[in-house]
Amino acid sequence: MTAGPQPERPERQFPTLLEQxxxxxxxxxxxxxxxxxxxxxxxxxxxxxxxxxxxxxVAVAVWRVVRKQPLQPAVSGLLGVGLAAFIxxxxxxxxxxxxxxxxxxxxxxxxxxxxxLVRWPLAGVVWxxxxxxxxxxxxxxxxxxxxxxxxxxxxxxxxxxxxxxxLLYDANEETWLGxxxxxxxxxxxxxxxxxxxxxxxxxxxxxxxxxx
Length: 212
What we know:
- The chain is built from 9 helices and no strands.
- By secondary structure, the chain is mostly helical.
- The chain has helices spanning 17-20, 23-43, 46-66, 72-91, 99-117, 122-130, 141-170, 174-183, 186-208.
- Helix 5 packs antiparallel against helix 7 (141-170).
- Helices cover 74% and strands 0% of the residues.
- It has 2 domains: 16-92, no CATH class; 94-212, no CATH class.
């Protein structure tokens, strides 16, 4: 007697990149300590700003634990602000707090540029990583072209941060450096993200439309 057909095992589901980052709230939460430092340093002084940023990082971590949300984004943000606070404390200058961000922007900008040159535009890699998709998009010329342009825009965003904030860093303009850090954070990121969404959806409509 042969056994009947075995039920198919459900495919194992892995968390997407966005889920691993704690969703949109996790991304926002990881940047709160930086914003607290910028504002506190403008209103008060370096040491109160360092303490306020560290307290904000701990508060975010506790808030995520209470809400039973992924802790990794908050821990990563706390480690990042801890490193920035350490550099600022050791140098005795508020601009030291922004040095890790400048280095990160330079590294991201270089990575995005190189990804275009090797035809693996990171805008596409990250987009489909967030949505848990594969890499089939690379076989679609319209999508590959859209992600290439989007990646070049992200490269420009990172490069503009490095250039402008680097000039302010060299000039020791701590207040304006903090203002630039905030102004060139979510606003530029939001614009680049909107362009990426528009370019990708336009490319998808072009790819799905029947050839005439």
